[in-house]
Amino acid sequence: MSEKQIVLPVTGMTCANCVATIERNVKKIPGVTGTTVNLSTERAAVNFDPEKTTITGIVQQIEKAGYGIAEGEKTIFLRNFSDIADANRLEKSLRKIDGVNFVRSNIASESLLVRFIPTIISLTEIFTLIRNSGFAPIEIDDENADVESLARNAEVTYQKRLLITGILFSLPLLIYSMAGDIGLIQSEIVHTFWSRFLMLVLATPVQFYVGRQFYIGAHKAIRNGSANMDVLVAMGSTIAYAYSVLITFGLLHGHVYFETSAVIITLIKLGKFLEARAKGRTSDALRKLVSLRPKTATLIKDKVETEVRMDDVKVGDLILVRPGESIPVDGVIVNGSTNIDESMVTGEPIPTEKTVNSEVIGGTINLNGAIRFVAQRVGRNTLLSQIIKLVEDAQSSKAPIQKLADRISGIFVPVVLGIAVVTFIVWMLLGNTIPVHGDTTPFTRALVNMVAVLVIACPCAMGLATPTAIMVGTGKGAQSGILVKTSESLEKTAGVNVVVLDKTGTITRGHPSVTGILVKSGYSETEFLRLAASLERSSEHPLAQAVVAEATSRDLELQQPDIFSYKTGMGVAGEISGKSIIIGNKTLIDEECISLSDWVSKIHTLQDEGQTPIIVAIDKEVAGIIAISDQIKQDSRQAISRIKEMGIKIFMITGDNKRTAMTVAKSVGIDNVIAEVLPGDKAARIIELQKMGNRVMMVGDGINDAPALAQADVGLAIGTGTDIAMAAAPIILVGGEMKGIGQSIKLAKNTVATIKQNLFWAFIYNIILIPVAASGLLIPIFAAGAMAMSSVFVVFNSLRLARKPI
User: Fold this and answer.
1) What is the pTM of this model?
2) Which domains are assigned to the chain?
3) Is 502 a catalytic residue?
4) pLDDT tens digits, residue range 319-330?
């Protein structure tokens, strides 16, 4: 099965119950293997087998469940678009593309109307497809428009319009009703038919125009055999409104509650408006990343400079970037030098010096020198595009801690309905045993208390508690060069109590170099190095590359080995010009039964200095030692000290010998060392630590340490951005600096703490206030205000994450 994933922007969700409804309905589709719906991002991530179902089928199932898919719409004008055959051909071509929902051509106006799903296909890609089909679109100023942001802004505008309408009608209604209650208007006037009819006129637009969304949402929920917040609001406000209508027309006697129904809806709309605005801010970090994408690039072809759109840039193109301009795509400099601000991608504030052969990252800023570079990765393959995709995936994922909220939300509304019914019955049974005031009757008192219970309950806060915090946390991480692939890994990181650090490339820079050569009497150092480098050139190990680099710097002529074999974790062996050569560590030399008696003290001296001795044996006799050292990163000691301050135990793991490993560990403040470990055995050492009850984070380069990274509770890959696609860990540090380890742990702790705060508020709010409302101590208007603010509180509490230092 070739599994595929799509992300769909869903409209019409109001609470966690909507999430459960969509997930339940989509999972019914044959071929769908997994569905995750995120209330905060308003997205549904669906994994499916394209041989068994289609994107159209998934969209139709979501719409059948009563929800919508946010579409982008664009009228595209084309040059010389006047032939009906051409129009039909283009329509047919575009309809085959995933994410394109509707295409209609108009040859009279030479235009094309396209509706599309922006999370599947972008407007830029549609323009490219049209051009590739042989047509020339025009009016492309907004080709790179953020369709989802536009849709979210439209939702905020819509909620604002409803809120203003609600206030315009509810406020005079509330003032008039209160004036009657406190005696500013004579009782005879307030209780006349025309007075009540005026209140009916003011309340009706609020009930059925401003509150229309609640009725639509309630209908969707009931049709799907469930209940959500809309059911509670629609039921509570309708009871108050309908009861008041009956009194207005003389069918019942008592006090009207038009102001109650209208203010309930208006206050909840205020909450929805504030929530919509705040939810937009939770994705600010992602939008900033998207905005880094340059729109044009300057190509050099046949010594001519031409400005082209980004989708016209191809791998291998020569690109010019002047000072102050953005790097358009990833590539390698072939001419010039400069300093580049990569902080927006790596989180490192200090500009990076770049010269010929240096790699550059698309979206970063060229500060002071003109450079020419060759494009290596374009479009969706650039580092920036990969980062955006990872952040989107993380924000769409569901953390394990959210499962509790989902389970409770699934039964929440039915329980509240039950409590509301019981409240009404109890208050009716109490009847005249409790005094009533004014024109209030036991029936109206029971009714009002039931309405208060219905509108005080808020499952929305439960649904928003986790995803809003995850969105802000992962977004903040991305801005600091910390990429979190899943929200589950973020939650696990918060509970880490042991960090295992690989030495090479993590604590050290990962670029070892030769620091000294010791040769046996009678051997030429130059010939000794030439033979060693000739054999090592066939190995990709960093130590081997250091030997080759040293020989190359001396302009030595290397030759191809006649025989070569790699000894995993120990070294290499082979034959050059009839000479048998073995290069490696003490274990390999001992295995080959070669005497080291004359070299032991020299080896120990090098190891005590933190250098790695590479032993070279020629014709079964040790001919010399090559000393190699890997410089420790400047921030290693400080970063390790910070991790210790968090109460976390640190281990260093390495394939290096124990003496060298202990020297390096001591220099950076690490007490626990696991040395002389073969690459394949690192995972076993992680298992040993886990069996002791530890939650382990493994930190490595994401490639050689893949088994250990996968085995650990949390794998964190340290490396340059160019290795991001190969990183085998759920968390990636783009910049490669050690300080990112402590930052990622702090970020995770802050995020999980915020989630727990949100869930506590959501739960305790309902636990305390539902009984208060049932006891008659909370009038419906105050209940509606509290309900509206609960969701707003959760969202704004999550936004605080963005300001917390890591």
Assistant:
1) 0.73
2) 4-69 (3.30.70.100), 314-377 (2.70.150.10), 482-508+633-747 (3.40.50.1000), 513-629 (3.40.1110.10)
3) yes
4) 999 998 889 999
